[in-house]
Amino acid sequence: MYDPIQLSKKIENLVLKKNLKKYYRFRSTCFYNGIATADTVGCNLRCVFCWSDKSVWNVKNIGKFYTPNSVAEKLQKIANDYKYRQLRISGGEPTIGKNHLLELLELIEKKYLFILETNGILLGYSKSYVEDLSKFNNLHVRVCLKGSDLKEFRLFTNANRGFNFQLNAIKYLNEEKISFNIAIVSNRNNKKDLYKMLSKLCEENIFIEEEDIKLYPKVKERLEKLRMLELFM
Ligand code: SF4
Predict the structure, then answer these.
(1) Sign of the CA dihedral 146, 166, 169, 132?
(2) Is 46 close to ligand 1, i.e. is its CB under 6 Å away?
(3) Quick one: which atom of ligand 1 is closest to the CA of 43?
(4) Averaged in consecutive runs of 10 residues, what is the pLDDT profile of the chain (233 residues)?
(5) pTM to 2 decimal places
(6) Residue 45 CB less than 6 A away from ligand 1
């Protein structure tokens, strides 16, 4: 087991050099009906079903360092070329490297919506991070809960804590009136209690999607090794 906050610091040291952050790919994707995507390197969780491979487990050997300015330029060029209105970061956890992310958001033209897909750990750990994000009107945050409670979170991530940080992130985003939605990965059939809790946390103002795990060959192989494949079939 590991502590996701300590892991964040360790990963930050590997994927950030001052305000430059590692990315390994820039591309157009069909998600959200078309979105310009920068794939970053490094995460503070180790989800058993993660589709990212080297960008999470082998950060030293993948990617190159980019300034916020060059990331913003690349994303906006893709969006412009494909006539997209949306941008995002995938491949790893975009909230690692707060200054890099904030500077990047400053550089995004207001005509674009930036979708921040996050596991919420660092947002729930530090409310001031969420306060800093609240000044961007063209931002939507998608928090993906890894499990429906601490027990399932631990099973999926092998982290010793973090589920409460994910819930805190939702609370803070709601308090700061930032546009957001929740995605959940869970095998539980009955999620009534979780939905009730989330609805209380968000004062009924809530959009929840259940995320399906895609069994890419690497994911399948990892789950087979861990004898957890049947959980996701
Ligand atoms: S939080 Fe996302 S990127 Fe990080 S390990 Fe989990 S699924 Fe992969």
Answers:
(1) negative
(2) yes
(3) 4
(4) 98 97 98 97 97 92 97 98 98 98 98 98 98 98 96 97 97 96 93 89 83 93 95 89
(5) 0.96
(6) yes
